[in-house]
Amino acid sequence: MGICQSNFINQSPIEGHKLKSFSNVERYKNKISATCKILSGSKGTGFFCKINIKNKSMIVLMTNNHVINNQSITNNPKIEIEHNNKSKYIEIKNKRFFCTNEQLDYTCIEIFSNENINDYFEIDEKINVENPFEEYKYDLCVIIQYPFLKEPQYDEGKIKQINQEFLFYSIATEEGSSGSPIFLSTRNLKIIGMHCACSPNLKLNKGILIKYILDDIQKQYSEKIEIKLNQNQRNFQISKREIEGDIQKKNEIKLNQNQRNYLTYNRKILLNVNNKFQIR
Asked: What is the distance between the alpha carbons of residues 226 and 217, in angstroms, rounded to a whole number?
C-alpha cells in the first residue's frame, strides 16, 4: 500500500472512529499512570518508558518534537506536565539527558529517580524483527491519549502498514493526542511506537516505530558522551598547561631569589674582605 506522507497533519479527528472512556476497561487502566498531559510547548500527550542506552538504564519521558523541542525549552526550560492529576515541572538542566529529532518527530527527556515515576511502559524487544509488518499485522494496537487535554481516553485498531520507521493505523485521535504511546493489546501491553499525525482524507493515523527512536537516542547519547569526553580532555590539557606554567613560574621565582641571595652573600664577603684590608 503506497501512502503519501504529505497527506498527514499533526492533529485532527478521523471520521468513523470514536474515543472510549476507561470506565469498563480494567486492563488498560493501570497504564494511565504511565502517561501524562504535556502542558508546555504546543501541548499534547506524553508517556514514560524504561530504556537502556550504553549499559545505562533510565526512565524517560517521551513526546513529539512538534510538542516539545529545542525552541520551546529555550523559551522556557521548565516543562509543565500533569501526572496522576497533579501538576509537575521538569526543568531541563545540563545534567539531565535531553534529545530531540524533528524528522522522527520525537523528544526524549531523562527522569531522575527522585521524581518518583513508578509506572512506565516496557519496550517490545521483538520490534527489531526483520519484517515488523508481517510480525504485527494481526495485532491490535491501542493508544492512550488526552484529547483536548481533558480526561484520558483510548481507542484500538489494526495496524494497516509499516513503512520503514513509520507505522499506519486507523484509530480515533483528537487535538492533544500528539505524543501518545502506541502499544499492543495482544503482547502484554508493550509499547511499539509513538503517535504523531493523522490523515482525515486517508482515514489513517501515523506513528513512529520505537526501534528507530531508540536507535537515534543511542546515537545522540553517544555523541553527547564523546563531546563531554573531548571537553574534559581539553579542560585537562588546559589545567595541565596552567599547572606546568605555575610550576615553571615558581621555579623561575625561586631561581631568581637564589641568584639574588648568592649575589648578596658575595657582596657581604667582598665587603668584609675590604674592611679587613683597610684595617691593616
From this structure: 14
Strand-pair partners of 100:
107
Q: What is the dihedral of CA 127, 133, 137, 139, to 10 degrees?
A: 10
Q: Give the pLDDT of residue 66.
A: 94
pLDDT band for position 70 (cuts 50, 70, 90) = very high
Residue 180 neighbours by CB under 8 Å, 6+ apart: 35, 44, 45, 47, 143, 144, 145, 146, 173, 194, 195
Cell of 82: 500533569
**Pick from 32, 223, 16, 204: nearest CA to 195:** 204
Q: What would the pLDDT profile of 227-279 be if each residue is shown by its tens digit?
A: 766 666 666 666 666 676 677 777 777 777 777 776 676 676 666 666 666 55
User: Taking the alpha carbons of 82, 91, 41, 65 in that order, is the dihedral positive or negative?
Assistant: negative
Spatial distance between the Cα atoms of 6 and 15, rounded to a whole number of angstroms: 19
Cα separation, 107 vs 196, in Å, equals 11
Given a cut of 50, whether residue 1 has pLDDT beyond it is: no
**Domains defined along the chain, listed by start:** 5-217 (2.40.10.120)
pTM of the model: 0.77
> With left for phi above 0 and alpha for psi between -120 and 50, is residue 207 left, alpha or beta?
beta
- The contacts of residue 51 (CB under 8 Å, 6+ apart) are 57, 58, 60, 123, 214, 217
Name the residue type at position 95.
K
How many other CB atoms sit within 10 Å of the CB of residue 43? 20
